[in-house]
Design goal:
The complex is a heterodimer of chains A (181) and B (495).
Chain A lengths: L1 H10 L1 H30 L4 E2 L2 E2 L3 H19 L17 H28 L1 H16 L4 H22 L8 H10 L1
Antiparallel strand pairs in A: 1-2
Helix pairs in contact in A: 1-2, 2-3, 4-5, 5-6
Chain B lengths: L1 H10 L2 H19 L5 H8 L8 H26 L8 H12 L3 H35 L3 H17 L5 H15 L2 E2 L6 E2 L13 H19 L21 H22 L5 H16 L11 H17 L1 H7 L5 H12 L8 H4 L1 H30 L6 H20 L2 H19 L4 H25 L10 H18 L1 H8 L1
Antiparallel strand pairs in B: 1-2
Helix pairs in contact in B: 1-16, 2-4, 2-16, 3-4, 3-14, 4-5, 4-6, 4-12, 4-14, 4-16, 5-6, 5-12, 6-10, 6-12, 6-13, 6-16, 7-8, 7-11, 7-19, 7-20, 8-19, 9-17, 9-18, 9-19, 10-11, 10-12, 11-12, 17-18
Classes of the chains: A mainly alpha (181), B mainly alpha (495).
Chain lengths: 181, 495
């Protein structure tokens, strides 16, 4: 992995600089999370009448987290990723080409979260399928709709009805389950 | 030996054999399908077992427990979705093997490795249960705390990148584990007065977000040509490992079995620690550590064996001391109690037919799992032929079902999505996410041990160095951390 990163540096220095900045930003975000944790833990009881209080452990952990984040900010060291293709050595031109696809995938993830709360499984399946199959990957409307309806049906019939698995519930799911149960 | 043979005669009766098969089959299916964890399945089936014979009931429920470990491998290898925390390590090299057209051999090695580890684990239970039960009793809170520290240090040391980064990930995982109600006095911690956060961050959305959803984002960022999975060879060769792969798997399976069984004996997340430790050990021992994370056979075979041996090892404290090692064995303990059998040191005298029947059923169950899983490999591998356009929505919807059904709470889906983005960003910048999961799982046990030890000593931290065992673990942690900061390590990591 380190070799890949070095090669990436030789080919495209701006990419490496961006990756370095990204590492710092990621570490800063972790530092911020740890500081928030420390602030929350500070208000908790550290020692109670019967022993350590609720705040002792979070305070120790958050303090260690803050200290380590500062150390990593100063000395990031080599990437510790365990999988091929993880680190950001991707070509900038390629990144631009795939950016719109990537943005649509991000949107699909957000739809997943919102749909689970408000839309129900069927609507979420359809929306995610149309977003990804039609818009992100450029297939036909027919393929996207067929895929979405198929996925929704499998979820509804196999999981919700036959296996009695809890699925996000909206009006469609409620109507279907009222019919079959 | 007579007792074990008696156990076999109990299991080989038609009825018990059928329940053993049902358990193993259900376990495999539950491991593959999203939304149905072993805990839910055992909980659902528990009332059904009320009218069954106690041995048959425990045989079936145990079959589900160890069958899930087999099934979880399939989604980890093919889709990078870990079914449970102990499958996280399988995602690392198993998924990369699949991308290189070696999905069949990866699943074959995992199935055979799991079978070997599971069977050897059962043999160990058969002969070593009483002395091992005594050994586990030597662990008090301070020993546990120091062992957790040493285990985390070992895994961060072996992570392959800079030690501070790995330690930061471990601390981040521990911090995530503190969110929610304090386990001892129910005080809300780090919840920002948000009611949903009172339950804390659940493992399922965390693992699925960090691994499954982040992978979808990685797939989206890559050009479709980059995602092309090398075509596997035709015929039986597609599913069988090469002689080289088989040779390279033998050592990791052996080491993973021993490590997994011993760590699995310890209450609390044994199989998870075992799989991570096995990965770390194999990486350290390998002549080609740079292959890890890129489809190294050792990185799959060792943790898979450790995972299964750990699952088997967890039965020792359950059967011999009545101490559940995790939530699932706690439910199995409940099943024993419902049927009027109290697991513990007396079980061999009071209900030998139950003890030896369950032990014998594990031998049979492991063979059944192998026979069930090997012929299905060809069918599972077909998933990889699905192009990205159809595979990614499927992964997203599987993740949605898996996360939502776990708690029935839409907030968990939001948590998974948030961790999907967090995981993507951290992975992209070289942070090791496996350590986050390990630390998150160990966090509550680590905290409980530290607090119990401090309560016993009235706040004196020297309790962590009061016994030879805890001093040994503390020394091991210190040596590992100092070795991690040694300049030579940076050179090794670069190599």
């Amino acid at each position: 992995m380190a070799n890949d990163a070095d090669q990436g540096a030789a080919v495209a220095l701006p990419g490496k600089t961006r990756a370095g900045q990204g590492t710092r930003l990621a570490t800063l975000a972790l530092l911020a999370a740890a500081l928030v944790g420390l602030w929350q833990a500070w208000g908790l009881e550290r020692w109670a009448i019967d022993g350590p209080g609720a705040g002792l452990w979070p305070m120790i952990v958050a303090s260690v987290c803050v200290a380590l984040a500062v150390i990593v900010l100063i000395w990031p060291g080599p990437a510790g990723t365990t999988e091929e293709g993880d680190t950001d050595t991707i070509d900038t031109r390629e990144l631009v080409r795939t950016r719109s696809t990537f943005n649509l995938y991000c949107l699909a993830l957000i739809v997943l979260a919102v749909g689970a709360a408000y839309g129900g499984f069927v609507l979420t399946s359809l929306t995610v399928s149309i977003l990804l199959v039609r818009f992100a990957e450029g297939r036909s409307w027919g393929a996207a709709l067929l895929y979405g309806v198929g996925a929704a049906l499998i979820g509804l019939v196999c999981f919700a009805w036959l296996l009695r698995v809890d699925l996000p519930t909206g009006p469609i799911e409620r109507a279907f389950l009222a019919l079959v149960r | 030996m007579d007792a074990l043979l008696n156990g076999f005669s109990i299991v080989l009766s038609g009825e018990n054999l059928m329940y053993c098969f049902i358990g193993a089959f259900l376990g495999t299916v539950v491991g593959i399908l999203p939304g149905l964890g072993p805990l839910t399945t055992i909980a659902i089936l528990l009332p059904i077992t009320f009218k069954m014979d106690v041995t048959s009931a425990i045989i079936m429920l145990s079959g589900i427990y160890y069958g899930v470990a087999y099934g979880g491998t399939v989604t980890s290898v093919l889709m990078r979705i870990p079914g449970e925390a102990s499958s996280v390590v399988t995602c690392l090299d198993g998924y990369e093997m699949a991308r290189k057209g070696r999905a069949g051999p990866a699943l074959f090695i995992a199935a055979v490795g799991s079978f070997v580890a599971g069977t050897l684990g059962v043999i160990a239970i058969t002969f070593l249960s009483p002395p091992l039960a005594k050994m586990v009793l030597a662990f008090g809170p301070s020993e546990y705390a120091m062992m957790m520290l040493a285990g985390l240090s070992m895994v961060t040391y072996m992570s392959g990148g800079s030690l501070p980064r790995a330690l930061l990930m471990a601390a981040f995982g521990l911090l995530l584990g503190t969110i929610g109600l304090d386990p001892m006095n129910m005080t809300p911690r780090l919840t920002f007065d948000i009611l949903t956060l009172s339950d804390g961050v659940n493992l399922v959305p965390l693992a699925i977000g960090l691994f499954g959803l982040s992978e979808v984002l990685f797939m989206a960022r890559r050009d479709e040509s980059e995602l092309t999975i090398l075509a596997p060879p035709k015929g039986m060769a597609a599913f069988l490992p090469t002689a080289e792969e088989a040779r390279r798997s033998v050592g990791p399976v052996g080491r993973g079995t021993v490590l997994g069984f011993l760590v699995g004996l310890l209450p609390g997340g044994g199989a998870v620690i075992a799989s991570f430790l096995s990965y770390a050990v194999e990486r350290k021992l390998s002549r080609n550590p740079e292959e890890f994370g890129k489809g190294a056979v050792e990185g799959l075979a060792g943790p898979e064996a450790a995972n299964n041996a750990g699952t088997t090892g967890a039965f020792v404290p359950l059967l011999c001391m009545g101490i559940p090692a995790n939530a699932i064995t706690a439910l199995l303990l409940g099943a024993f109690m419902i049927h009027g059998v109290a697991p513990g040191p007396q079980i061999l005298e009071r209900a030998p037919e139950v003890f030896w029947g369950v032990v014998a059923s594990m031998y049979i169950g492991n063979i059944m799992l192998l026979v069930l899983n090997l012929p299905l490999i060809g069918m599972f591998v077909k998933i990889l032929d699905i192009p990205r356009v159809y595979l990614t929505p499927m992964i997203l919807l599987v993740c949605l079902i898996g996360v939502y059904s776990n708690s029935g709470n839409p907030a968990d889906v939001v948590v998974a999505v948030v961790f999907g983005f967090v995981g993507y960003y951290l992975r992209r910048h070289g942070f090791d996410l496996g350590i986050v999961i390990l630390a998150y799982v160990l966090g509550p046990i680590f905290e409980r041990s530290v607090r119990q030890a401090l309560s016993i000593s009235d706040g004196d931290p020297m309790i962590f160095l009061h016994s030879k065992l805890s001093i040994g673990f503390a020394l091991a942690a210190a040596v590992i951390l100092i070795a991690g900061l040694w300049p030579k390590r940076a050179a090794v990591a670069k190599a």
